[in-house]
Design goal:
With about 350 residues, this protein is an alpha/beta fold. The chain has one domain: Aldolase class I (TIM Barrel, Alpha-Beta Barrel), CATH 3.20.20. It is built from twelve helices and nine strands. The strands form two sheets. The chain has a seven-stranded parallel β-sheet, sandwiched between helices. Helix 6 links the parallel strand 3 and strand 4. The longest helix is centred in the first third of the chain and has 23 residues.
């Protein structure tokens, strides 16, 4: 009898090992095992799991506009956005998409030893234009050697069915991320910063984009005017309930020449202090599911354009503080309700 029990136990153990081997080949599980080495699931880990090497984004300025700036919705834009719309101005200087990507490849290969790249259409709204024009821009990007995918920053009110069908075509052959600017799930905040859309618009865009092979990233800004910690956590919980694959967090810093700078100079807006921002990021991460990829934890202001706060230029220091704070709290992404 004892021998029979022993044999059954050995068989069970072998079966369980085989089950784990099969399970570990599943992409989601492999990603999860990788991300558990860190307190949050970072973008580099995700990309390395796909391609086996360092992959970097190359910022592209495609010369597109925004309905919140060209008069369709508004002429002033969001209060934190300047006339370049987070762009480099390269397109206006006559630098083609191809040339921008070649220059970016050279710089990032030297700095990070990157071997593959994503073309990141960043400035303004990069699905805002005639579909044929968009196709020409995207085709130009993927034609560059070592470009393995596209990351397209846009607004949730700029993705009609023809655009989604176009993106779906690229998603069949390339890694395709669409990055929607939510910024906050508080409609009063969205109105305050002149976003020109509400939270439901974002939810509708996510629902329309899901199940097309397109990865969805939500952009969120921490430190928006009059936002409380509870508002920020509400935004995290809203994202957690949607078919979102990744999140980008930004500090609300003040750029020269914006409506926000006017408020700042008048004493009507105060930037978060560095540790305050670090704490908000950690609070936010605790409510984000572990399956979601954290593409960024803070932004990169142009030094010549920055009005405040100056500590936002010390990105490495801020990232180190986030890591230290998570460790001191014994906290991690998804600790407070973020399901797998």
């Amino acid at each position: 009898m004892d021998i029979l029990i022993c044999d059954l136990f050995v068989i069970w153990c072998l079966g369980f090992v085989i089950f784990l081997i099969i399970l570990s080949t599943h992409t989601m599980v492999k990603d999860w095992l990788l991300q558990m080495k860190s307190r949050y699931y970072d973008f580099n880990t995700y990309l390395r799991s796909l391609y086996g090497c360092r992959v970097q984004k190359i910022t592209v300025d495609a010369g597109l506009s925004c309905p919140n700036r060209d008069g369709t919705l508004s002429a002033g834009g969001c209060i934190y956005c300047n006339v370049r719309g987070s762009g480099t101005g390269a397109f206006a200087r006559g630098v083609s998409v191809t040339e921008q990507l070649h220059r970016g490849k050279q710089a990032l290969a030297r700095r990070y030893k990157a071997k593959k790249f994503l073309a990141y259409f960043q400035s303004f709204s990069n699905t805002y234009g005639p579909v044929q024009k968009l196709k020409l821009l995207y085709d130009e990007a993927v034609a560059v050697e070592d470009i393995v995918g596209l990351s397209i920053g846009t607004r949730p009110d700029c993705v009609g069915l023809p655009v989604l069908e176009l993106l779906q075509e690229y998603a069949r052959d390339y890694l395709l991320w669409v990055e929607y600017g939510l910024q906050s799930a508080n409609d009063a905040t969205l109105a305050r910063v002149n976003r020109g859309h509400d939270t439901q618009c974002f939810k509708d865009a996510v629902a329309a984009t899901a199940n097309r092979g397109i990865k969805i990233c939500a952009h969120v800004i921490l430190g928006l005017p009059n936002e409380t910690l509870q508002d920020m956590i509400h935004t995290a919980k809203t994202i957690a309930d949607l078919a979102v694959d990744g999140v980008k967090l930004h500090l609300l810093y003040v750029i020269k020449g914006t409506a926000l700078e006017t408020l700042y100079r008048q004493g009507q807006f105060q930037c978060l202090e560095q540790q305050e921002y670090v704490d908000r990021v950690c609070d936010f991460l605790e409510h984000i599911p572990r399956r979601m990829i954290i593409q960024r934890l803070t932004g990169d202001p142009h030094p010549a354009e920055l009005a405040a706060p100056q500590w936002s230029l010390r990105k490495s220091e801020t990232l180190a503080k986030i890591k230290q704070t998570l460790e001191s709290r014994d906290s991690w992404q998804g600790k407070k309700g973020g399901a797998f």
